[in-house]
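User: Show me an example of a complex going from sequences to structure tokens.

Assistant: Sure. Here are the input components:
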Amino acid sequence: MRRIPVALWLAAPGLLLLLALMGGPVVLLVLESLKPFVPGSIRPGEGVTLGNYTELLAPAYLFYFQETFRFGIIVAGLSVLFGAPLAFAAVRSRSALLRKLLLALLVGLLVMSLIARLYAIEMAWGSLGPLAPLGALTGIAPRSPRYAEVQVAIGLLHFTMPVVALMLVGTFRALPPRLEEAAASLGARRSDVVVSVVLPLAAPGLVSAFLVALAMCISNFVVPLILGRGIVTLATSLMYTRFADIGNYPSGAAIGVVMLVLAFAVVYGLSALARRVLPGARL
Amino acid sequence: MIGAALDLAGRVAARVAVLAAVAFLLVPLLVACLMSFDDRSFLGPFPPRDFSLRWYRAFLDNPAYTDGLFVSLQLGVIAAAIATAVGLAAALALADPRLPGREAMEAAFLSPKFIPTVVIGFSLLVFTARLGIYEPMTRLILGHVVITLPFTLRAVAASLIGVKRSQVEAAMSLGASEFRALWDVAVPAARSGIVAGAAMAFVLSFDEVAVSLFLSDAFTQTLPIALVAEMRANLNLTIAAVSTVFLAATVVLLVLLDRTIGIERLAGDVGARG
């Protein structure tokens, strides 16, 4: 009898766990989403239907998904725009202390409670907060209900920026400093070096970071829950209300399946596309 | 001339962007920290004039919070321990180039990270109900292990990159069994990843809302669930006190992690997402 490799034994607990706790539930979720909903009952009806999916194609529902992507794309863009200089400073600053402090800040935010951070944002950017005048620069008054949109965007940005910056720290660390030194020794100015040497080399990393930030925004649940004040409804909150407020499990399951597909499409589909355009993008 | 001006403008813009980003990330935390010592009995405008510890006392006097804290600590430790053990074993397996279907397995192990946590919570709720598991702590542990596993695996895998397969094989050629060789050679080398992964798993579990919201019941609430309920009902400064405690705990954790594995290394281990 052939001996089973040790590596397989080591992988087995994890694989079984995933199969039981992710594979099983996801299959059930798909089955659940195909059941008809009986209003007023938490028990689904008999038979198989695609009704829960076709319902989502109605303009009212498409709007939620469109909103989700609008927030995601704006926030992911800003996240990369500010995260990249932050990461570059954390890797290439001349001061060792500054490099360490920036890294500590980023890692610290990564391990710090998101709930506490969101509450702090409400304190600082809310209508009573000291940063409210800055928030008003968006053109939405801090006292108007629509200001919740600004708060949600700020919350998502606070959530994604440390992750984006740490991913880019990895990207910038991997760039050989010799190329920059060579360009500088040939007389290029620092800003020219960054624009014509660093950015093109880091482009795949920047694209990956953008996509991860986008996926994080689409999947996030806590930010609209806490800062959305019931005014900003994104796809995740929509799914939760289906389940918690209306008790419509099949429809909640259908939204869940759609979100699952969207999240994987962003992470794997778009990054495959990016790899084709920019060889070397890693994800 | 114009080139020099542009160069200067570019450098200034980069500095401003870094400063703006740091301020954006830090200022809210400092505001909440200061507000938590406010002596006013209501939520007034910033800054507070008189300071006291009344909101810290209010936290300790509220059983919803203290019970939640206990549940969250218990849950975090158990889930992190399981996720770290399983993640370590899986990372050791994935480091073996002879493992069949290695790439597919790696993708499978990392996939929970990309599934929205609401979807995990919802589907686990349906699943555990079907299996007849209603005990909230069991449900919560199952859910938290699933969401933390990719992080422990990833952190251990990152720290195993430096360990050469040949070192393990050298130990085996000296007569050690493969298990023994991995335990004595690879596991000690992966220490930084194990610590970073376990810390990350605990922190993630301790802060988790979506999965817990689906899997907890009225009697077993985690601290985040209690906090979110309070935040949505009436915004008060008790939560500022909790946030400040979290901030302090984060600083302590950072110092500890810096002492044991170093921030530079840690940034590499936990930052390697994606």
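The lines above are the inputs; the final block is the predicted structure for all two components together. Chain B has a mean pLDDT of 86.
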